[in-house]
Amino acid sequence: MGFKGKLEMVPVSAILKERGLEPGGRVQKFVDAECIRLMAPYTPYLNGALEDSATLSTVIGSGEIKQETPYARYQYYGEIFGPNIPIFENGILMGFISRKGVKKQPTGRPLTYNKSKHPKAGKMWFERMKADNKEDILWGAGKVARTK
Fold first, then answer.
1. Radius of gyration of the chain from Cα atoms?
2. What is the DSSP letter of 43?
3. Is the Cβ–Cβ distance between 64 and 112 less than 8 Å?
4. Are strands 92-97 and 85-89 parallel, antiparallel or unpaired?
5. Tens of pLDDT along 47-70?
6. Helix (H) or strand (E) holding 134
7. Helix-then-strand count for the chain, H and E
8. Cβ–Cβ under 8 Å, residues 46 and 78
């Protein structure tokens, strides 16, 4: 008595695509959008530019969240860089500038974050959001992968 069988396999790429797991697929788009949404309350907020830059600078589905404002890096790492020259108008401190050609260096002084709009605002906001929401993001990604 013999046995004759034929095994036909669907290509892995087709299986991944069916589940939305291909690069730039619906699961990656979900993860990117969810991370941006969940990151907002952790992001420092003055006028909304830093928070908005996550949506404006990120290609949803790329797997990389970008916040492209001139000060995003300083805010993210939470350290004042200098030297800074204060700008005063009518005796009121309006901001700071740096001399052209002078490279800013870390000063060792921590930034202070305004928490009136976002009470969770502070440095390393993506890492803190991820620590608090990782399981929810993974659960949601799994749900997206199981649906069409």
1. 23
2. S
3. no
4. antiparallel
5. 999 999 999 999 999 999 999 998
6. helix 125-145
7. 5, 4
8. no
Query: What does pTM read for this prediction?
Result: 0.80
Q: What is the pLDDT of residue 104?
A: 82
Please give the biggest Cα pair distance in the chain: 100
Helix locations, 20-112, DSSP H: 26-39, 49-57, 72-77
β-bridge partners, 93: 88
- pLDDT band, very low/low/confident/very high, at 148 (cuts 50, 70, 90): low
Q: Which sign, positive or negative, has the C-alpha torsion 55, 59, 61, 64?
A: negative
Query: Which stretch of DSSP H or E encloses residue 125?
Result: helix 125-145
Sequence-separated (6 or more) residues with CB below 8 Å from residue 46? 114
Tens of pLDDT, residues 58-113: 999 999 999 999 889 889 999 988 888 888 999 988 877 878 888 888 888 899 99
Q: Where are the domains of the chain?
A: 12-145
Six-digit token string for 44: 């420092």
Alpha carbon 18 to chain centroid distance? Answer: 27
